[in-house]
């Protein structure tokens, strides 16, 4: 029998150690390689987009089969329908308040910086806007949320429709009681299998990163950077304020360990950053939050809902872009006009679910509603991939914090209720109450 082992420097040892490199490090290496390919061989770089598209397809195949059973089980295991309504109310209220504050931060920062004045919007290529919707049809959005065929919704990747149907199934299971246990066992098995599949998919994330970065650098280049550096800088500064000031303040108010939470999801936010797709980490994000200590019922309800209604990074980008365009066209940027802009975005940003090129579509719709021409948005498309990476990463962190806040609120409520329900035992001199009896 041959018992020889590879030498420490041999190729066999190297390839065995490669999979042990953290995914985040592999992704950083892929960013560097992709940038080189895009600069040195643009033709090859554009062709490598196929790697990113294959990775996203793998992710999208898994998302709904995992999210659906998790939401159903999460709702079914809540004590009552009243708790479902309470958590839904807290979640929607949190989304509305936080996104409104972020919009005010973005508008104030953009106005203070004065970005957009003198920008060459007249020379923008409007052909880049071909195929994008010129607005959001809320009638269609409602039908999107309540599909007439759930199997068609699954086939189309309709996440919002799947969430609504999962909520109905979960409530029905809770009302059915013991008879629903066999179906719950099936869903548990499906979720466990899908988590395993997600683990396999995430291993190839660096290849997707390599493909996307190669394509972005080769296709977009850096031609518009000089005239739009102010816009990019304000977007990144605003996102830094949100991550470094607003989110820690919210976490402190609700007693969430923000730094630990950030460490827990940082790797997944990094993958979302370079792939420009928050869906690529939806499934592993819920698993990571459970490991952090959040309950599955809360996580599986809040996070998927947040992907449709809590896009913190995206709304900051949209508000900054609108101020940029208003300054570029010499439009009114007085306080009432800016407040109107914020109000429009508060409404329109909630219609982003299931819309292709969602941020750009919302931007066009908001611009139309306040009298800004859509042509100027074409100029921003040249650097959209740069800001898209940052806003996508912030979306992941924002939804993680939202789940932690709602979960913390529920746990504190349950602790207070348990304290009120505990019986007051009379003190008996000379008697020591055993721990088990006291707990009872």
Question: Would you mind describing this structure in some detail?
Answer:
- There is one protein chain.
- By secondary structure, this protein is mostly helical.
- It has one domain: Sodium:dicarboxylate symporter (Proton glutamate symport protein), CATH 1.10.3860.10.
- 74% of the residues lie in helices and 0% in strands.
- It has 20 helices and no strands.
- The longest helix is centred in the C-terminal third of the chain and has 38 residues, at 384-421.
- The chain is globular.
- The termini are far apart.
- 43% of the residues are buried.
- The model is unreliable at 10-15, 123-136, 353-357 and 427-440 (pLDDT under 50).
Present the secondary structure layout.
Layout: H1 11-17, H2 23-40, H3 42-47, H4 49-76, H5 81-113, H6 138-145, H7 150-156, H8 159-176, H9 181-203, H10 205-220, H11 225-253, H12 258-275, H13 282-292, H14 296-309, H15 312-328, H16 335-348, H17 358-369, H18 377-381, H19 384-421, H20 435-439
